[in-house]
Amino acid sequence: MKLKFFSKQAFKRWMFLMVIAILPWMTVIGQIGGECTAEELVQLGFENVRWAENDAERIYTIENNVYKANGVGIAKAIETIQKSGLPTNKRCKVIVTNLDIPEIALTYHPSSCDSISDNGLRNWQTSYEIGNSWKEVKKEKIKNSSRYKVDIVVYPQLSYKNLIITQIYQALFTLNPAIEVSLLPGMKFTGQIIVPIYNDGYSIYSDRVHPGYITLSQQFRLPYNIKGKATIGYFNADRYGADLMLFRPFKADERFSLEGRVGLVGIGYWDGFKLHYDTDMNWTWTVGANFYWPRYNTQFSLKGEQYLMGDRGVKFEMTRHYRYASIGFYAMKGKDANSNGGFRFQVLLPPYKQKRHKLIPRVSTSYNMGIAYNAGNEQYYYRQYRSEANENIMNNNRFNPYFIKTEINNNY
After folding, report:
1. Helix, strand, or coil here: 346?
2. Which of 62, 152, 156, 203 is the most buried (most CB within 10 A)?
3. Residue 81 in contact with residue 59, Cβ under 8 Å?
4. Residues whose CB falls within 8 Å of the CB of residue 197, separated by 6 or more in sequence, listed in order
5. Preceding omega of 110 cis (within 30 degrees of 0)
6. pLDDT grade for 169, boundaries at 50, 70 and 90
7. Looking at the predicted structure, is the pLDDT value of residue 405 above 50?
8. How far is Cα 172 from Cα 21, in angstroms, rounded to an integer?
């Protein structure tokens, strides 16, 4: 009996035919896997979900409007993608968006243990750098779009001051419900009503229900990882006008970044629903640099600023970020004012998870609540405004890639 063996040439032909036969099925399996993963992300409540695949990578986009702790939400999405199976011999990239504008990217490079092991969650790289992946995936159809969805957000606010001898503190507590509507990509409308609950001599104008923020904002992303937001409308601190913010991380080392802000605002205050305003408008601006220390999730900032009274000064800030809180200290020195400083903190408010039901308006508390303490008791100098109701030290750090990386590593 003779045994027959394949010749080398016949074996190569056989292997070639096998590869040709298997490749289409591998593509189909990859497409089914990517589609199933995207649908699972939608079922979990993530919005603006897309996916695409090319020869170099598989790309997903997600927007976390489910978990108030953004790091927890992104980690949950990464865990879902990881367990559903990563592509073979190519990168997997997740682009995190905000109002369908890309913020950061998380990238997994293939390795020998890139299947479904939990320790793989620690191997995702985070960065402000999006590359050309956004151009590839933004052409795909959106699943669970955030456009035209309505949130009714209740912002609790506590204000206090100590200016008179006969009273320790003059306090004001208000509940400020706001309607927030996502419009075009990056665009959001906010309309707020301030409802006084307790007013112990804080302000005579605070005894009546009156409007708060009424704004239209547009977020955008420019080349070289420049992120920005333009806002018009009625702000806080009795100001109305227009505001522009820009942020740019250093490409060589994203721990370092630059930021700038310019506003053209005028005085306006509400007496009930009657607005009193001055047509004279003034410029404010901020130019500064930041350093983020990933080991302790602490940011250091040094800024030069022009304030609402036209006074100018320098401000130093140090802010430590935790999952459920951010605590910061600041010091300021102006040309025509005494040195000043203090602290501020923000605390995440429950419920920590909030899922939408289709287009039904979602009612919830604000993401967080905070207080700022002015140690110098300065009433006139160093005054600034906020252009949106959710602008604070905690929300400003929601898409910091180093913070997100820490959240993933600490929990999975």
Report:
1. strand
2. 62
3. no
4. 173, 174, 175
5. no
6. confident
7. yes
8. 73
